[in-house]
User: What shape does this take?
Amino acid sequence: MIHKRGGALLACALLCIGVLVTAAASSARTTALPSWCGPKKIKLGFTDGFGGNSWRLVTTASARAEAKKCPSVSSIDYADGQGNTQKAISDIQGMVAKGVDALVVFPDAGKAILPALRSSYKAGVVTVPYRVTPGGRAGVDYNVFIDTPFAQAGKNWGRWIKRVLPKGGNVLMLSGPKGNSQGVDENKGLHKILDPTHKYKFIGEQPFEVTNWDPALTQKVLSAAIAKYPKIDVIVSDFGPSLVGALPEFTKSGRKIPALATSDGNVLGCFWKKNVAKNPTFKLYTVSTQNDHARLAMDWAIALATGGKKPATTHFPSLVFEDSTTGKPNPVECKSKLPGDIYLSAQLPAGVQAKLVKG
Amino acid sequence: MTVATVALFASSMLFASSSVTRGTLLTMLPFASALAIASLGQTLVVMQGGIDLSVAGGLSLYVVILTKYPAGDNSRLWPAIGIAFLAAIGAGLLNGWLVGRMRLNPIVATLGTNALLFGVVLWYTAGIPTTTTARLARVGGGLWLGIPAPVYFAVATAAVVTAVVKLTPVGRRFEGVGANEVAARTAGLGVRRHRASAYVWAQILYCLAAVLHAGIVNQPTAYEGNNYLLPTVAAVVLGGTSLLGGRGNLVATAVAALFLSQLDQFVLALGVSYATRTLVQAAALAVGVALYTINWGGLTRRVVGRRTTNPAPT
Assistant: This one.
């Protein structure tokens, strides 16, 4: 799911700073046109492989909000593949037939989508897939692929674990379906940071315990791990909100909730606030769940189609969001009046997200 | 079934002692209870020679009604439960009408209803999960006298359903219709009505299972019912109820649900890979089903008989 690049550490740090600066700069001048917005009028298409959860709703709304910043975009068409690869393919073909000038694609089905992307690209539509790698090559099958280095999230977690558990400890990692490339890459990043110290032991199934990102299975897997391992010092998970139902298993077994390195979600922040007093070991560190990845893809598609300035990078970095131990870059956030299924790390304001997910 | 379950717990203690610690049991038992109640519903349908594939869509729908309608507000929980049970009766009547009156094949009819129910789930939630209300979470995750609250619901439900089916005239008629349709019709029993009623009662039981499940899983997805489709059928078969209809072993079904849930925890605790876990589960199911469905006596006789009648050529 990622492009493997060497010399990642320094480049990643530079990228983080670069994106932060760009973000700060673009919010400072809200009235000026973004540099990626060129003069040529275009029709824009946006297709999703699967649009039916709160993360996708917020991501789609973020993409729309980004496109609206550019007045050269005269219309935005959206199609949801509903988890059906065949529909996702015909959605792309439909967009091309409708005559869109630029097309942003979330290719959930991966390589199965490649022929549709290629035919869109060959038809002269600016084609920009993002997040899930469709295979193929930029400039041959599509214009550019906007990826995110998942290993970087693993490295971020690893560095934090080294800081909060300097003496070492037992690390339990949970991810989605068996062998999913996101989990595999995150695990590699984690190993890269923790292995040289020889102080950390990875417990449970390797590279990660399989939860399918399903809350019920997460609960069963975690309770089995709690019973099997008398000492779990830190849990690493790439879907923080799915742990909210499972973490009370520690309390049920008469143990304290350990440190947690994961991705953000309002429900998780609120859970931390409620439980930290009774669980002093429960330290929380989150990376952004990356709803704004879609914005970078939009910027690229619009820049290429309207003749604007290309963004500096095709990689959307893993950004640290909350750290309960330092409060930097943010302390743990909880908006208890708003739904649990919103993501405070996203640029889209919390109130707007709340309206979206409440439907 | 009881013997198999006892054997499983014994081997759990021997090979994976961590799967029978208090903490693990407290996690496993609520899931087992919800599965037991849903499986009792499936048993009623199977006793009428049918099968209910709409358990996935139904359970998913009731779970989202129970979480999204109150949206965290405890005072709206009771109305939500009411709406969920009404929806369950509606879904059951639809199945009953399709199978009982229109004489559709149960697999086709309930598969259709299942798609319809999932359609409603997606229309209502757009696939977005909602966190369970605190009151429901206290029931699903709570302990009464040191035992998970859902266990009481499962035991009570199993007792009531068994008592009604085995001890009351209504229940005996219900079983009679399932065992022999022609005989039942000759005896003047309303075959269609009994058939249809099985689907309604099944959905009501799924709804009760959904109430527990929504409480156990704090943030259920919109597709929770999928976790129940195969396990309910497996529990019915392991419980020894024939898929051709007739007498139902209700208590055995409930015990089978416990067996399946403990099997889950057992293979998790073994610490083997996900692939091995799936294989162990499949093997256990195959053995369990084989015990009931293969005519072992006949098979032995055939094998032995063949040996004696066909001497090896010299």
Remarks:
- Chain A touches chain B through 36 residues (CB under 8 Å).
- The radius of gyration of chain A is 21 Å.
